[in-house]
Write a structure and sequence with these properties.
53 residues, 2 strands
C-alpha cells in the first residue's frame, strides 16, 4: 500500500476489511498509519473475515 500511495500522482483511497484489526485500538492504529502514508480516504468494510472451520 505504501508503495502505491507514494508512487501515484492521483488521490488514493484504501479499503480495509474489518479495519484490519481485532480491537478498536488496532483499527485506530491502522487508520492513523494509512493517513500518515497520505491516503485521502479510507473505507472500513463492516465484513468480518474468519479463517478455519
Amino acid at each position: 500500500m505504501e508503495r502505491i500511495i507514494r508512487s501515484e500522482n492521483l488521490p488514493v483511497t484504501v479499503d480495509i476489511e474489518g479495519g484490519h484489526g481485532r480491537s478498536v485500538s488496532e483499527v485506530k492504529e491502522n487508520v492513523s498509519r494509512i493517513i500518515e502514508l497520505g491516503a485521502v480516504g479510507i473505507n472500513i468494510e463492516d465484513q468480518r473475515l474468519f479463517t478455519g472451520s
